[in-house]
Amino acid sequence: MACVLHCRLKRNVMIVYFIVAYLIFTFLVTALAVNRRISMGNAFTLSFFLTPLLGLLAILKTDKTIKITHYATKYHCPRCQAEFNTHKEYCPSCLAEGVKVKPEQAEIKLAG
Question: Which of 1, 14, 57, 107 is 20 to 30 Å from the Cα of 40, by its Cα?
Answer without folding.
Answer: 14
